[in-house]
Amino acid sequence: xxxxxxxxxxxxxxxxxxxxxxxxxxxxxxxxxxxxxxxxxxxxxxxxxxxxxxxxxxxxxxxxxxxxxxxxxxxxxxxxxxxxxxxxxxxxxxxxxxxxxxxxxxxxxxxxxxxxxxxxxxxxxxxxxxxxxxxxxxxxxxxxxxxxxxxxxxxxxxxxxxxxxxxxxxxxxxxxxxxxxxxxxxxxxxxxxxxxxxxxxxxxxxxxxxxxxxxxxxxxxxxxxxxx
Length: 228
What we know:
By secondary structure, the chain is an alpha+beta fold. It has a single domain (3-227), classed as Pseudouridine synthase (2-Layer Sandwich), CATH 3.30.2350.10. Helices cover 17% and strands 36% of the residues. The protein has four helices and twelve strands. The radius of gyration is 18 Å and the shape is globular.
């Protein structure tokens, strides 16, 4: 059950892992902006909750783009961090995303394969139909799960984890994500978010071996409410 404290929504916690529901605007790890990262907020939460003296260990397992919302996993022990990283490399973690787009894709269900190249100058990736120098193969699967009056909800499963992969590959088929100016949507969301949400994660716990299946509630806005 999700618990909220210090403005942090915790979806799961045990001795080894803590899984939170990230808000738009949060950065997972510190960057050049100097803004307080989510990792520091989680460390403070753990320190407070357990009255821990000294530094709290917290391993960043994966990241989400700043305007994106949803599931972020942190490791509370080095053992869990090492094992979870290996699970990610071995593709033993299933992540499912929800994306709201204005332009409905031609197919209700499809696999998109492209070659993504990141441009560090503008922090943007471009999708190419064939391999070019410096590109990485990107594969995702999507299906249409709901159509609203003006928008469409897609469920996306990633086979690879590339920079801005979902944003870039959906834009490449003409279905930019709502609010995502960087990838071709015509206007931003008021809160600078984009309608991309890390909805579900499923994996075998790296220490206890139990099956973990977490779903993150969507943000509290009109479009997301209509999607549920």
